[in-house]
């Protein structure tokens, strides 16, 4: 029997199963539930009862509480409008494009930026030049990026950057430092 207020946990179950390198048949054998039923759960076409969820959690060496916490019940949709300057810094050159505590950070930089600070992030970072040009020093090499160019730096790469033309606009997107990425599995840290 399905519990009406059980959140959809399909994505959490799938992520955990894949992290353990298990097939649906493996989980079915461990849990006593059928592979088709598990597939329906993973694809959010069926919602398990709390008893079934606990059987799945046991098969995945976790708990039902952890699966529920990792479920898609916390999905959000947020729009940040171009004219919304509530997040601008005092010099009006940095605008957050994602607000709150999420796995992803995104910032828009406009105007002159100096290369006076070195960065080294725990996780990956993508830089995209929307307008103008920038020079990025990463691991001792200088990369000049123009309009439409992007640069991906994996976690741990030391870098600094500066604008190379007036009117430059750069988008920087990064996986948050509070997120630990292990072999394709993303784990939130508190």
From TrEMBL:
State the Pfam families in the record.
Answer: Cupin_2, HTH_3
Which parts of the sequence belong to the HTH cro/C1-type domain? Answer: 13-67
What is a GO molecular function of this protein? DNA-binding transcription factor activity
The protein's matches in InterPro entries, at most eight in alphabetical order, are given as: Cro/C1-type_HTH (IPR001387), Cupin_2 (IPR013096), Lambda_DNA-bd_dom_sf (IPR010982), RmlC-like_jellyroll (IPR014710), RmlC_Cupin_sf (IPR011051), TransReg_Diox_bact_type (IPR050807)
Name one cellular component (GO) term.
cytosol
State the UniProt keywords alphabetically.
DNA-binding
What is the protein name stated in its UniProt record? Answer: HTH cro/C1-type domain-containing protein
Q: Which organism is it from?
A: Streptomyces showdoensis
